[in-house]
């Protein structure tokens, strides 16, 4: 078996209070990392949408010179929104693989659970529901900007 897939082959797993709390700290670190990516993604999606709206309204104002490249803000906005969506997808995948690794059979006793299968990732944390909602919002924003005829 590959040593990457089998943590017990790489090092000794001892069931102690220290290792249990280290497991919990690692699990919480995964949560914090996902939350940081969610914040970054929200900023990218929001900023992309704001750029599009700002320059659209700016072009409609009287006394404002016409833009040299009127589609540039839309393209930049789509790129930022797309980057936010991609960051959410990658961070959710990274979180899922990290949780799957921590819930592998070698770490089950450290986690404090014996002979219990891994639960679906959605039930692991409410943060995954937030990620799913933000993915839907991001996709809606992307499609709204993409399909809007300027």
Concise account of the structure shown:
With 150 residues, the protein is mainly α.
What features would you describe in this structure?
By secondary structure, this protein is an all-alpha fold. It has one domain (15-147). The protein is 69% helix and 0% strand. It has five helices and no strands. It has helices at residues 7-10, 17-59, 72-102, 108-111, 127-147. Helix 2 packs antiparallel against helix 3 and helix 2 (17-59) packs parallel to helix 5. The longest helix has 43 residues, at 17-59. The radius of gyration is 22 Å and the shape is rod-shaped. 17% of the residues are buried.
List the helices and strands and how they pair.
Blueprint: H1 7-10, H2 17-59, H3 72-102, H4 108-111, H5 127-147
Helix pairs in contact: 2-3, 2-5, 3-5
């Amino acid at each position: 078996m590959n040593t990457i897939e089998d943590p017990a082959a790489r090092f000794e797993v001892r069931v102690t209070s220290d290792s249990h709390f280290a497991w919990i700290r690692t699990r919480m670190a995964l949560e914090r990392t996902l939350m940081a990516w969610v914040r970054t993604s929200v900023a990218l999606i929001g900023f992309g949408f704001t750029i599009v709206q700002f320059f659209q309204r700016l072009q409609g104002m009287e006394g404002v010179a016409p833009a040299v490249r009127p589609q540039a803000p839309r393209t930049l906005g789509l790129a930022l929104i797309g980057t936010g969506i991609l960051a959410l997808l990658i961070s959710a995948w990274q979180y899922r693989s990290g949780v799957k690794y921590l819930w592998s059979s070698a770490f089950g006793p450290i986690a404090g659970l014996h002979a219990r299968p891994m639960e679906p990732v959605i039930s692991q944390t409410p943060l995954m529901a937030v990620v799913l909602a933000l993915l839907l919002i991001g996709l809606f924003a992307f499609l709204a900007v993409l399909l809007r005829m300027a």
